[in-house]
Amino acid sequence: MTTPAKTAAPAPATSDPPNLDFLIEAIAQADAGDSKALDVVREVFRELPRLADTLSNISYQAETAILCNVPPGAQELFREQASNLRTKLRVEGTGSALETMLIRRVTLDFMASMRADRARALAPGETRSLDLARFYEQQADRAHRRFLASVESLARVRRLITPLQINIAEQQVNVAGNVTTGKDRGAGGG
User: Do 109 and 147 fall within a single domain?
Assistant: First the structure.
């Protein structure tokens, strides 16, 4: 008679996140001028540098500032659109830190451009002075130019980061640096 095999107990799916109340309190105290609290904050970030990105995301704060006067429903719509845009841009990318920063910039500029377009548009029955209409038009144009510049920067960085792929006689060669011809190599040939 065989004994049934014992199965291992399943590991917990996730552990509880660390309690960071002390750090949040230390940040508040440091903001109020407490130099000892500032030392605590610096020490924590020195030991756990990635914690700063987890605790507070500057791009989220920028999104919040861009959307400050937008109604809550529209805010959620814009945030979801920006999130979807970030996801799509990440899928196409290489995952480098520089590329991630530029993706954040593209989405922030996208949100600012959409908000400026929204402010430029008149609600039914709304009127504006010519000066105010020009102001909103200029704001929208500037936001759109910033958006296009950030898209162009992301595209340029992707071209520089992505290795060049050359297929020669059914063999694939990836080149990550400068491509030179044979005559650039000098007399040694190699």
Answer: yes
